[in-house]
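ok trying this again, last paste got cut off
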Amino acid sequence: MRRLHAVLRCLALACAFVLPGLGWAADCPPQAQFPDPSTIPRSLRDARDRGMLWRVEQDGRTSWLYGTAHVAEREWMFPGPTVVAALRGVDSVALELNLLDPAVMAALRQAVAARPDAPPLPPGLAGRLEAQVRAACAGPELQAMRPEMQVFTLLSLAARRQGLDPAYGIDMALAGMAVGLRKPLLSLETPAQQISEMVSDDPARVAERVAAGLDHLERGDAGQVLTTLAYAWADGRLNLLENYPVWCACVESAAERAEYERMVDGRNPAMADAIAAQHRAGRSVFAAVGALHMAGPGGLPALLEKRGFRVQRVPFVPAP
């Protein structure tokens, strides 16, 4: 039972950061509903494997790569038997960021906070952003963020009416499982490294990013893209993830392509090095990272193969 409560503590803490100041009224998207503790044992027993898992071997030790979804349905939070067995067998668990570390949370909050000396958005853009914040039923805590972080957060909330919520993110549930299993929980990146790819101090660049995100929110396609991405993850459809830049309608200009490559493939070499360092130091690791970081020749499986590891994807039993 201690392990199950750890999962709930993790989810509550992470939700407080991911969903700042959300309120609910009759016309608001549905509020995330966390599982009742009495139902968790059955949910764990009935859970099936979702996502993508790779066995990573070198020097007689086995580590694991697991592609996650940052936005998910509630029932997806519970890992299936193959994933649980991999978790139990390692020395440590590594995520992009350990959101259970108070220092990491404090650094994240500081990094995403609006700069008092930052130039304001152009009035028209500021009005569009305020309208989307109201539509998401978000409060002043969201508006205290940098404008581009407000938009990133709003995009992550775009599929709540379809039952997909960042509060149910797989990384968060795995962090809780790691605590329950008494596994050391590591960060593969620092908050500064991750946030630096998402924010800018250039007013023109900020306005460009905010406008691009608002275009997707106002057209209404952000939720559909997020839904397609989430279900591709749930079904283990790596080929669909590999073609994400083709079908997402979000990587169309040269600037968008450069930004996507920087935010996805550009972060992978450092994470691959961190995973390899843990393994070569004699510690097996279960490394769970957003599934887009697993795709293509610049993905983590390919990069670890180049670093001398034997990498093999683990098949999951198909859904009935």
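PB: full thing came through this time. DSSP finds 16 helices and six strands in the chain.
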